[in-house]
Amino acid sequence: MRASRLVLLVLLLQNRGRMTAAELAAALEVSERTVYRDTEALSAAGIPIYADRGTGGGYRLVEGYRTRLTGLSAGEAEALPLAGLPEAAAELGLGAEMAAAELKLLAALPEGLRERAERVRSRFHLDAPGWWRSAEEVPHLAAVAAAVWDQHTVEVDYRRWDGTDVRRRLDPLGIVLKGGSWYFLALPHPHGGGPDAARLRPRVFRVSRVRELTVRGESFTRPESFDLAATWAEWARDFEQSRHRLRTRVRLSRRGLELVGALSSPVTAAGAAGLEAGADGWCEAELYVESVAVATTEFASYGPEIEVLEPEELRTALAEHLHAAAAFYAG
Question: Quick one: signal sequence residues (predicted)?
Answer without folding.
Answer: 1-21
